[in-house]
Protein 1
Amino acid sequence: MKIILNLKPAQSPMEAQEYLLHALSFPDYYGKNLDALYDMLTTWSQPASFVLRLPEGGDMGAYGKKLRRVFEDAAAVNGRIHVK
């Protein structure tokens, strides 16, 4: 399954996390931080190919790089997911 995540409109890390919460149908207890995202992705049970469209520049550009790294690190652990 291909999942396109368009985070470019996010203006803050919290907006990005809110987007991920809803876009990926995470449970209500999702912690809305990078550690919680890693936990959710490493236990993702369905095969998925994530296409990340991340913000560029400024603070969100730096956060976007961290988000990509979390997805890549989780994919290295969980063979069911891939990142583009």
Protein 2
Amino acid sequence: MYVILVYDFGEKRVNKMLKLCRRYLNWIQNSVFEGEISEVRLKELLMSCDKFMNKGEDSVIVFSGPSQISLNKQIIGKERSSIDNFL
């Protein structure tokens, strides 16, 4: 499945979330990641972030779909991180 993950974490926890997400997805912009990921790996990521997340202050939003092809992506301004997909 294709996922766009957006998070908003407190200052003390934001670096932990950044490092965690970089292990699973491609960094796009501050607190925004995207990429192909299996359901199992996504659950693993979310369970890992649950260990240090403060649910009263922090949030994670996951947009998912069958593939990147089913989404339109438009970038206005500077692209923070270009992604080259190759096999």
